[in-house]
Amino acid sequence: MLRLSLLFVGLLTLGLIVWHIGPGNIYDAAAQLGPVALLVMLIPSVIMYAVEAYGWKVTLGPSGKDIPFWRVLAIRTAGEVVNMTTPAGYVGGEPLKAYLLRKHHVPMEEAFTSVIIAKTTMTIAEVLFILLGIALSVWLLGGNDSSGQTVAAALLSVGLLALGTAAFVFVQRQGLCTWLLEFLRKIGLKIAYLEAREERLRSLDRAILEFYRHKRPAFCASTGLFFLGWMAEALEVYVILYYLGGPTMALSAISIGALSVFIKGGTFFIPGSLGAQDGGNLLLLKAFGYSDVTGITFALLRRFRELVWIGVGLLCLAMLGRRDTARENRAPDSGMVPDTFFLPRVAPAVPRAGLDLNRIALPGDDWKERD
Protein backbone atom coordinates (compact mmCIF):
# COMPACT_ATOMS: atom_id res chain seq x y z
CA MET A 1 0.00 0.00 0.00
CA LEU A 2 2.84 2.35 0.88
CA ARG A 3 4.59 1.71 -2.44
CA LEU A 4 1.36 2.34 -4.33
CA SER A 5 0.99 5.64 -2.48
CA LEU A 6 4.59 6.59 -3.32
CA LEU A 7 3.99 5.63 -6.94
CA PHE A 8 0.91 7.87 -7.06
CA VAL A 9 2.82 10.76 -5.49
CA GLY A 10 5.64 10.25 -7.97
CA LEU A 11 3.30 10.30 -10.94
CA LEU A 12 1.60 13.40 -9.58
CA THR A 13 4.95 15.13 -9.05
CA LEU A 14 6.10 14.34 -12.57
CA GLY A 15 2.80 15.53 -14.00
CA LEU A 16 3.03 18.84 -12.11
CA ILE A 17 6.61 19.39 -13.30
CA VAL A 18 5.61 18.79 -16.92
CA TRP A 19 2.57 21.06 -16.55
CA HIS A 20 4.63 23.83 -14.93
CA ILE A 21 7.26 23.84 -17.68
CA GLY A 22 4.72 23.39 -20.45
CA PRO A 23 4.05 20.26 -22.51
CA GLY A 24 4.40 22.33 -25.69
CA ASN A 25 7.88 23.51 -24.76
CA ILE A 26 8.96 19.98 -23.97
CA TYR A 27 7.51 18.73 -27.26
CA ASP A 28 9.36 21.40 -29.22
CA ALA A 29 12.64 20.42 -27.57
CA ALA A 30 12.09 16.71 -28.21
CA ALA A 31 10.80 17.23 -31.76
CA GLN A 32 14.25 18.23 -32.97
CA LEU A 33 15.44 14.69 -32.22
CA GLY A 34 15.01 12.20 -35.02
CA PRO A 35 15.15 8.39 -34.96
CA VAL A 36 18.90 8.46 -35.59
CA ALA A 37 19.48 10.67 -32.53
CA LEU A 38 17.38 8.36 -30.35
CA LEU A 39 19.37 5.35 -31.53
CA VAL A 40 22.67 7.09 -30.86
CA MET A 41 21.47 7.94 -27.35
CA LEU A 42 21.02 4.23 -26.68
CA ILE A 43 24.63 3.36 -27.58
CA PRO A 44 26.09 4.35 -24.16
CA SER A 45 23.59 2.13 -22.36
CA VAL A 46 24.48 -0.78 -24.67
CA ILE A 47 28.12 -0.26 -23.71
CA MET A 48 27.15 -0.07 -20.04
CA TYR A 49 25.18 -3.33 -20.11
CA ALA A 50 27.93 -5.15 -22.03
CA VAL A 51 30.77 -3.97 -19.78
CA GLU A 52 28.83 -4.71 -16.60
CA ALA A 53 27.92 -8.18 -17.87
CA TYR A 54 31.62 -8.86 -18.37
CA GLY A 55 32.26 -7.47 -14.88
CA TRP A 56 29.92 -10.17 -13.60
CA LYS A 57 31.41 -12.88 -15.85
CA VAL A 58 34.91 -12.49 -14.38
CA THR A 59 33.51 -13.44 -10.95
CA LEU A 60 32.16 -16.77 -12.19
CA GLY A 61 33.88 -19.97 -11.14
CA PRO A 62 35.29 -22.62 -13.47
CA SER A 63 31.85 -23.95 -14.36
CA GLY A 64 30.71 -20.56 -15.64
CA LYS A 65 33.74 -19.72 -17.74
CA ASP A 66 32.44 -21.74 -20.70
CA ILE A 67 29.09 -19.93 -20.84
CA PRO A 68 29.05 -17.68 -23.93
CA PHE A 69 29.28 -13.98 -23.14
CA TRP A 70 26.06 -13.18 -24.99
CA ARG A 71 24.18 -15.60 -22.73
CA VAL A 72 25.66 -14.03 -19.61
CA LEU A 73 24.53 -10.67 -20.99
CA ALA A 74 21.02 -12.02 -21.58
CA ILE A 75 20.82 -13.49 -18.07
CA ARG A 76 22.00 -10.26 -16.47
CA THR A 77 19.58 -8.19 -18.56
CA ALA A 78 16.70 -10.46 -17.53
CA GLY A 79 17.71 -10.14 -13.87
CA GLU A 80 18.01 -6.36 -14.09
CA VAL A 81 14.50 -5.99 -15.48
CA VAL A 82 13.23 -7.78 -12.35
CA ASN A 83 15.30 -5.38 -10.23
CA MET A 84 13.74 -2.41 -12.02
CA THR A 85 10.12 -3.52 -12.06
CA THR A 86 9.43 -5.43 -8.84
CA PRO A 87 8.79 -4.23 -5.26
CA ALA A 88 12.02 -5.95 -4.13
CA GLY A 89 13.97 -2.96 -5.46
CA TYR A 90 17.51 -3.53 -6.64
CA VAL A 91 17.96 -7.07 -5.29
CA GLY A 92 14.91 -8.95 -6.53
CA GLY A 93 16.59 -10.07 -9.73
CA GLU A 94 19.72 -11.49 -8.10
CA PRO A 95 18.24 -14.93 -7.18
CA LEU A 96 16.88 -15.11 -10.73
CA LYS A 97 20.38 -14.62 -12.15
CA ALA A 98 21.68 -17.49 -10.01
CA TYR A 99 18.76 -19.67 -11.07
CA LEU A 100 19.39 -19.01 -14.76
CA LEU A 101 23.07 -19.83 -14.29
CA ARG A 102 22.01 -23.11 -12.69
CA LYS A 103 20.20 -23.93 -15.93
CA HIS A 104 23.63 -23.86 -17.59
CA HIS A 105 25.07 -26.43 -15.21
CA VAL A 106 26.72 -23.92 -12.89
CA PRO A 107 26.56 -25.25 -9.31
CA MET A 108 24.36 -23.10 -7.10
CA GLU A 109 27.31 -22.47 -4.79
CA GLU A 110 29.25 -20.85 -7.63
CA ALA A 111 26.18 -19.10 -9.00
CA PHE A 112 25.23 -17.43 -5.72
CA THR A 113 28.86 -16.57 -4.97
CA SER A 114 29.24 -14.78 -8.29
CA VAL A 115 25.96 -12.89 -7.82
CA ILE A 116 26.91 -11.70 -4.32
CA ILE A 117 30.46 -10.72 -5.34
CA ALA A 118 29.27 -8.91 -8.48
CA LYS A 119 26.69 -6.95 -6.50
CA THR A 120 29.44 -5.96 -4.07
CA THR A 121 31.91 -4.85 -6.76
CA MET A 122 29.18 -2.94 -8.56
CA THR A 123 28.32 -1.05 -5.36
CA ILE A 124 31.98 -0.25 -4.66
CA ALA A 125 32.36 1.10 -8.21
CA GLU A 126 29.17 3.13 -7.77
CA VAL A 127 30.48 4.76 -4.59
CA LEU A 128 33.75 5.67 -6.34
CA PHE A 129 31.83 7.11 -9.30
CA ILE A 130 29.62 9.23 -7.05
CA LEU A 131 32.62 10.51 -5.09
CA LEU A 132 34.25 11.51 -8.39
CA GLY A 133 31.08 13.32 -9.42
CA ILE A 134 30.87 15.23 -6.14
CA ALA A 135 34.52 16.28 -6.38
CA LEU A 136 34.01 17.51 -9.95
CA SER A 137 30.83 19.39 -9.01
CA VAL A 138 32.67 21.24 -6.23
CA TRP A 139 35.41 22.21 -8.66
CA LEU A 140 33.08 23.19 -11.51
CA LEU A 141 30.36 24.98 -9.55
CA GLY A 142 32.45 26.61 -6.84
CA GLY A 143 31.88 26.53 -3.12
CA ASN A 144 29.30 29.14 -2.14
CA ASP A 145 27.37 28.70 1.09
CA SER A 146 24.38 26.96 -0.46
CA SER A 147 26.37 24.54 -2.57
CA GLY A 148 28.71 23.90 0.37
CA GLN A 149 25.82 22.67 2.51
CA THR A 150 24.54 20.51 -0.34
CA VAL A 151 27.96 18.98 -0.92
CA ALA A 152 28.38 18.31 2.80
CA ALA A 153 25.04 16.50 2.90
CA ALA A 154 25.95 14.53 -0.21
CA LEU A 155 29.33 13.55 1.21
CA LEU A 156 27.70 12.43 4.43
CA SER A 157 25.24 10.27 2.50
CA VAL A 158 27.95 8.76 0.32
CA GLY A 159 30.10 8.20 3.40
CA LEU A 160 27.29 6.21 5.00
CA LEU A 161 26.89 4.24 1.77
CA ALA A 162 30.62 3.52 1.67
CA LEU A 163 30.57 2.48 5.33
CA GLY A 164 27.64 0.17 4.69
CA THR A 165 29.42 -1.37 1.70
CA ALA A 166 32.59 -1.91 3.74
CA ALA A 167 30.54 -3.52 6.51
CA PHE A 168 28.86 -5.77 3.95
CA VAL A 169 32.25 -6.92 2.63
CA PHE A 170 33.47 -7.50 6.19
CA VAL A 171 30.42 -9.60 7.03
CA GLN A 172 30.89 -11.61 3.84
CA ARG A 173 34.46 -12.40 4.84
CA GLN A 174 33.29 -13.48 8.29
CA GLY A 175 30.43 -15.57 6.92
CA LEU A 176 27.31 -13.72 5.74
CA CYS A 177 24.84 -16.60 5.99
CA THR A 178 26.29 -17.92 9.25
CA TRP A 179 26.18 -14.43 10.75
CA LEU A 180 22.54 -14.10 9.74
CA LEU A 181 21.66 -17.42 11.35
CA GLU A 182 23.46 -16.56 14.57
CA PHE A 183 21.87 -13.12 14.68
CA LEU A 184 18.40 -14.59 14.30
CA ARG A 185 19.13 -17.09 17.06
CA LYS A 186 20.35 -14.35 19.40
CA ILE A 187 17.10 -12.44 19.05
CA GLY A 188 15.16 -15.65 19.65
CA LEU A 189 13.96 -16.15 16.10
CA LYS A 190 14.52 -19.56 14.51
CA ILE A 191 13.39 -20.11 10.94
CA ALA A 192 12.99 -23.83 10.32
CA TYR A 193 13.74 -23.50 6.62
CA LEU A 194 17.11 -21.84 7.22
CA GLU A 195 17.95 -24.09 10.18
CA ALA A 196 17.43 -27.17 8.00
CA ARG A 197 19.86 -25.77 5.44
CA GLU A 198 22.55 -24.56 7.81
CA GLU A 199 25.30 -26.73 6.32
CA ARG A 200 24.50 -25.53 2.80
CA LEU A 201 24.60 -21.92 3.94
CA ARG A 202 27.96 -22.53 5.59
CA SER A 203 29.17 -24.04 2.32
CA LEU A 204 28.14 -20.85 0.52
CA ASP A 205 30.03 -18.78 3.10
CA ARG A 206 33.15 -20.86 2.53
CA ALA A 207 32.88 -20.35 -1.23
CA ILE A 208 32.60 -16.55 -0.79
CA LEU A 209 35.57 -16.51 1.59
CA GLU A 210 37.63 -18.58 -0.86
CA PHE A 211 36.89 -16.04 -3.57
CA TYR A 212 38.13 -13.15 -1.43
CA ARG A 213 41.27 -15.07 -0.45
CA HIS A 214 42.33 -16.51 -3.79
CA LYS A 215 40.67 -14.43 -6.51
CA ARG A 216 41.60 -10.87 -5.65
CA PRO A 217 42.61 -10.06 -9.27
CA ALA A 218 39.11 -11.08 -10.40
CA PHE A 219 37.60 -8.92 -7.64
CA CYS A 220 39.64 -5.89 -8.74
CA ALA A 221 38.92 -6.54 -12.43
CA SER A 222 35.19 -6.77 -11.73
CA THR A 223 35.26 -3.50 -9.75
CA GLY A 224 37.16 -1.76 -12.58
CA LEU A 225 34.76 -3.02 -15.23
CA PHE A 226 31.73 -1.89 -13.24
CA PHE A 227 33.36 1.52 -12.83
CA LEU A 228 33.69 1.73 -16.61
CA GLY A 229 30.04 0.78 -16.82
CA TRP A 230 29.14 3.69 -14.56
CA MET A 231 31.30 5.97 -16.69
CA ALA A 232 29.09 5.01 -19.64
CA GLU A 233 26.34 6.89 -17.75
CA ALA A 234 28.44 10.03 -18.20
CA LEU A 235 28.77 9.30 -21.90
CA GLU A 236 24.99 9.05 -22.13
CA VAL A 237 24.64 12.42 -20.41
CA TYR A 238 27.09 13.97 -22.87
CA VAL A 239 25.26 12.53 -25.91
CA ILE A 240 21.79 13.61 -24.73
CA LEU A 241 22.90 17.16 -23.93
CA TYR A 242 24.71 17.37 -27.26
CA TYR A 243 21.55 16.47 -29.18
CA LEU A 244 19.46 18.85 -27.07
CA GLY A 245 21.73 21.66 -28.25
CA GLY A 246 23.12 22.62 -24.87
CA PRO A 247 26.78 23.29 -24.04
CA THR A 248 28.60 20.02 -23.40
CA MET A 249 31.71 19.37 -21.36
CA ALA A 250 33.13 15.97 -20.52
CA LEU A 251 33.78 16.82 -16.87
CA SER A 252 30.31 18.27 -16.43
CA ALA A 253 28.81 15.15 -17.99
CA ILE A 254 30.70 12.94 -15.52
CA SER A 255 29.52 15.02 -12.58
CA ILE A 256 25.91 15.13 -13.77
CA GLY A 257 25.92 11.39 -14.48
CA ALA A 258 27.34 10.53 -11.07
CA LEU A 259 24.99 12.82 -9.15
CA SER A 260 22.06 11.49 -11.17
CA VAL A 261 23.03 7.96 -10.06
CA PHE A 262 23.21 9.25 -6.49
CA ILE A 263 19.71 10.75 -6.74
CA LYS A 264 18.28 7.55 -8.17
CA GLY A 265 19.95 5.42 -5.50
CA GLY A 266 18.73 7.70 -2.74
CA THR A 267 15.11 7.37 -3.88
CA PHE A 268 15.09 3.58 -4.37
CA PHE A 269 12.09 3.20 -2.05
CA ILE A 270 9.89 4.99 -4.62
CA PRO A 271 8.86 2.63 -7.45
CA GLY A 272 11.11 3.53 -10.38
CA SER A 273 12.20 6.63 -8.41
CA LEU A 274 9.29 8.21 -10.28
CA GLY A 275 9.02 11.96 -9.81
CA ALA A 276 12.01 12.17 -7.47
CA GLN A 277 14.53 11.12 -10.10
CA ASP A 278 12.99 13.42 -12.71
CA GLY A 279 12.73 16.41 -10.42
CA GLY A 280 16.25 15.76 -9.13
CA ASN A 281 17.66 15.69 -12.67
CA LEU A 282 15.83 18.93 -13.43
CA LEU A 283 17.37 20.70 -10.43
CA LEU A 284 20.75 19.13 -11.16
CA LEU A 285 20.86 20.47 -14.71
CA LYS A 286 19.67 23.89 -13.54
CA ALA A 287 22.63 23.98 -11.16
CA PHE A 288 24.89 23.41 -14.17
CA GLY A 289 23.29 26.27 -16.09
CA TYR A 290 20.76 24.46 -18.27
CA SER A 291 17.16 25.58 -18.76
CA ASP A 292 14.10 23.95 -17.21
CA VAL A 293 13.03 22.66 -20.62
CA THR A 294 16.41 21.03 -21.22
CA GLY A 295 16.37 19.57 -17.72
CA ILE A 296 12.97 17.90 -17.94
CA THR A 297 13.53 16.77 -21.54
CA PHE A 298 16.81 15.21 -20.41
CA ALA A 299 14.99 13.39 -17.60
CA LEU A 300 12.26 12.11 -19.93
CA LEU A 301 14.81 10.88 -22.49
CA ARG A 302 16.50 8.85 -19.76
CA ARG A 303 13.08 7.42 -18.94
CA PHE A 304 12.80 6.46 -22.59
CA ARG A 305 16.08 4.56 -22.29
CA GLU A 306 14.81 2.74 -19.20
CA LEU A 307 11.64 1.68 -21.01
CA VAL A 308 13.68 0.35 -23.93
CA TRP A 309 15.81 -1.79 -21.62
CA ILE A 310 12.77 -3.01 -19.71
CA GLY A 311 11.43 -4.23 -23.05
CA VAL A 312 14.76 -5.86 -23.92
CA GLY A 313 14.93 -7.47 -20.47
CA LEU A 314 11.42 -8.89 -20.77
CA LEU A 315 12.33 -10.25 -24.19
CA CYS A 316 15.44 -11.94 -22.75
CA LEU A 317 13.37 -13.35 -19.90
CA ALA A 318 10.83 -14.77 -22.32
CA MET A 319 13.50 -16.26 -24.59
CA LEU A 320 15.35 -17.88 -21.70
CA GLY A 321 12.08 -19.24 -20.34
CA ARG A 322 11.09 -20.64 -23.73
CA ARG A 323 14.47 -22.33 -24.07
CA ASP A 324 14.15 -23.92 -20.64
CA THR A 325 10.62 -25.11 -21.40
CA ALA A 326 11.72 -26.67 -24.67
CA ARG A 327 14.62 -28.42 -22.94
CA GLU A 328 12.35 -29.80 -20.22
CA ASN A 329 9.86 -31.05 -22.82
CA ARG A 330 12.66 -32.84 -24.70
CA ALA A 331 14.15 -34.43 -21.58
CA PRO A 332 12.88 -37.92 -20.68
CA ASP A 333 10.90 -38.16 -17.47
CA SER A 334 13.32 -39.82 -15.08
CA GLY A 335 11.05 -39.46 -12.09
CA MET A 336 13.62 -37.22 -10.43
CA VAL A 337 13.24 -33.52 -9.62
CA PRO A 338 15.61 -31.01 -8.03
CA ASP A 339 15.18 -29.82 -4.49
CA THR A 340 13.95 -26.23 -4.42
CA PHE A 341 15.27 -23.03 -2.93
CA PHE A 342 12.12 -21.54 -1.47
CA LEU A 343 9.94 -24.62 -0.99
CA PRO A 344 10.44 -27.05 1.91
CA ARG A 345 12.11 -30.38 1.13
CA VAL A 346 8.90 -32.22 2.00
CA ALA A 347 6.84 -30.36 -0.59
CA PRO A 348 5.63 -32.61 -3.43
CA ALA A 349 7.07 -31.91 -6.84
CA VAL A 350 4.79 -30.05 -9.24
CA PRO A 351 5.62 -29.96 -12.96
CA ARG A 352 6.28 -26.42 -14.10
CA ALA A 353 6.95 -24.74 -17.42
CA GLY A 354 9.11 -21.73 -18.07
CA LEU A 355 10.99 -19.78 -15.43
CA ASP A 356 9.88 -20.38 -11.85
CA LEU A 357 11.75 -18.70 -9.04
CA ASN A 358 10.44 -21.34 -6.66
CA ARG A 359 12.78 -23.88 -8.24
CA ILE A 360 15.98 -22.15 -7.27
CA ALA A 361 18.08 -24.59 -5.22
CA LEU A 362 20.55 -23.88 -2.48
CA PRO A 363 24.12 -25.14 -2.79
CA GLY A 364 24.24 -28.81 -1.86
CA ASP A 365 20.56 -29.54 -2.43
CA ASP A 366 20.18 -33.13 -3.58
CA TRP A 367 17.89 -34.67 -6.17
CA LYS A 368 14.97 -36.58 -4.77
CA GLU A 369 12.44 -39.01 -6.15
CA ARG A 370 8.83 -37.98 -6.36
CA ASP A 371 6.49 -39.14 -3.67
Q: Your description of this structure?
A:
Residues 333-364 and 366-371 have low confidence and may be disordered. This protein is 73% helix and 2% strand. It has one domain (38-325). The protein contains 13 helices and two strands; from the N terminus they run H-H-H-H-H-H-H-H-H-H-H-H-H-E-E. Helix 3 crosses helix 6 and helix 4 (69-85) runs antiparallel to helix 5. The two termini are 40 Å apart. Strands 1-2 form a two-stranded antiparallel ribbon. The protein is mainly α and 371 residues long.
Which strand order spans the largest sheet, edge to edge or round the barrel?
1-2
Report the mean per-residue pLDDT as an integer: 81
Distance between the termini: 40 Å
Would you list the SSEs in sequence order as H and E?
Answer: HHHHHHHHHHHHHEE
Number of domains: 1
Please tell me how large the radius of gyration is: 23 Å
| Biggest pleated-sheet summary | 2 strands, antiparallel
Poorly predicted regions: 333-364, 366-371
Helix/sheet category? mainly alpha
Overall outline: globular
Helix content: over 70%
Strand proportion, as a percent range, falls in under 5%
The total of helices stands at 13
Number of strands: 2
